[in-house]
Amino acid sequence: MPLSIRGAVLGLALLPFCVSVALAQEAAAPAKAGTEGARTYLPADFTRFAPNNALDMLEQVPGFVIRNAVQERGLGQATGNVLINGQRLSAKSQDVLGQLQRIPASNVVRIEIVDGATLDIPGLTGQVANVVTKAEGISGQWEWRPDWRKYYTSPQYTRGNVSVSGKAGGMDYTIGLTNNGNHSGAGGPTVIYNADGTVRENRVDEWTGEFDAPTLATQLAWTNADGDKGNFNGRYQRVFYDYDENGMRVGSGLPDRYRSVMSEEGGHNYELGGDYEFGFGPGRWKFIGLYRFTRDPISDTVIDDFLDDTTPTEASRFTRNGDEIERIARTEYRWKGWGGDLQVSGEYAFNSLDSTAELFFYDPVTGNYDPFLLPGGTATVQEDRYEVMTSYGRALSPTLQLQVNVGGEYSKLEQVGAGGMSRTFLRPKGLVSLAWKQSDTLDFNFKLERRVGQLNFYDFLASVNLNNDTQNAGNPDLVPPQTWELSVEANRKLGAWGNTTLRVYGQRIDDIVDTIPIGATGESPGNIDRATVYGFEWKGTLNLDQIGWKGAKVDATWQMEHSSVEDPLTFEKRPISNNLQSLAEIALRHDIANTNWAWGGAIDYSYYELDYRLTEVGRQWEGPIWANLFIENKDVFGMNVRFTASNLGDAMSMWDRTVYVDRRTGPIDFHEMRNRRIGPIYSITFSGTF
Predict the structure, then answer these.
(1) pTM score, two decimals?
(2) Which of 2, 22, 417, 529 could serve as 379's disulfide partner, Cβ 3.0–4.6 Å?
(3) Spatial separation of the C-alpha atoms in residues 375 and 398, rounded to whole Å
(4) What's the alpha-carbon Rg for the chain, to the nearest Å?
(5) Which helix (H) or strand (E) holds 96?
(6) Using the 8-state DSSP alphabet, how is residue 87 labeled?
(7) CB hemisphere CA count around 177 (13 angstroms)
(8) Each residue of 335-344: pLDDT tens digit?
(9) Which of 53, 40, 62 has its CA nearest to residue 96?
């Protein structure tokens, strides 16, 4: 595997850029007005796509890969690669893509693609999109996306969004209501094999899951005559999720039984955040504040009803109620000096989880669910973190830009209850990047970064998965992983042909989180000393107008990774659990000239590494090939209407796992092979503006 990836990286690096030299020489698109050094797209460049909002426009930028901000500890320095009006979003629960979805296309002035190292926002590297907007009067956009499936699920009617944007005095505002709901389901056989290959049990199950998360969000932006800027972000979300699975299990020498699985998840979350920036002395000073709360109750119940007259019903239930809080206070001061841009920042962040978990077993005599002690399931986990960073960026030459970020963080991690303890950490972090504009059609970005990862506080606590018959013992000794990453990104403009981007990267991760032994028989997420990851990500857009197919284009993405970590049980090298192995997608869109019609389709494939637990090894996934076709009309009584038929490649819901009697170093207990049908998925999207 390592050699094949190295060869693929080399071949991929050479092919698109060698081909692009010829294409760029054949047809070079004229530069457009905009920020100096930027590749700028105006609203007219997207007219043929009939975009409804800013996200629709950004998704059509040739060769650009949208990356959401990394969910770091606190806010930290900027991540991701999308800005709005030159500013990062001071929020955690709201991602920039959701914000773009709420901005009507009519409010977009232009989209600039620039190198992050040339901006005065520390942390940004590689290609960055700056979406420049301007609200005039009151405008809005809406979208309704119902879908239905042939098997196992009821139609989904509640998915869609609506937003209104406007300007009142010096205040720009956007208010939006979104529900990215989803109905899913699958059904089919599962076969349980004994270690010798004989069949132990046959199962036929069907499941359906219904998810809705209505979300109300608002953004307010204000700028006064002196250039002072203020922003406010608010968000409230309710969560509704119901999962039902029913099936029959038949095995030689075993009583036939009917199995039911019921899961519910609810709760709500909200976030309030804002920032204020003003001139002070020789520079600009910004203050940022954020408060976030999440309540996440879940309940899982599994019931086995035996069809004979002697075996009593068996059932169990797991419940968990968790409250998460995050508070952040951050300040940044930037100014011009030493021939470049400087910034000093400080941040305080507090995170806490207060969780209560209970396990119950059914008593067939009384008909009650009796509580059972779950050690380590109830506790409070909290962290206080302080960060100080200094950043400096400057042009070393007309074609070479340097950015250096240096600093560190101090944190205190505590667990109250369930064997908790208190620990403190002091860790350096930072980044060095170089942006090199080799020519008008080719630029490179080199980055070396050290970052500290975010822990999932639920990993500290014991939990049970009743459906899969697995349990995490909880681990109060968890520490955040730290990652060194070296990457090179190259962007080649192909003129009228399109654009292509290649990123090659390698990571060394210290204290990576994976499943480790806990005590003599337990297991839970924990830290392994070191892991490595390397791979590449390529995206290209090829406009087919140049070969006479007017209005047609192809977008392609290809990513491969190789990972390695020492298994904590066998001490042999293996991939990181569930890490990406390969991903590919190719999409065609044809906007038929001089009509309102468009059509197209896409094929995508993704494959992930095995999940390594101490008692089993397996892979649970859907695929391997997903395919869809769509047809679209951009003016149906003023609306855009698109019909999509998905899962034309007959992707399945699969699980292939080997379970051992004790741990993986011992004999095999059984092998499970699941292959459930998903079936075709049909959707219709209505969208418009007002």
Answers:
(1) 0.86
(2) 417
(3) 62
(4) 27
(5) helix 96-101
(6) B
(7) 7
(8) 999 999 999 9
(9) 53
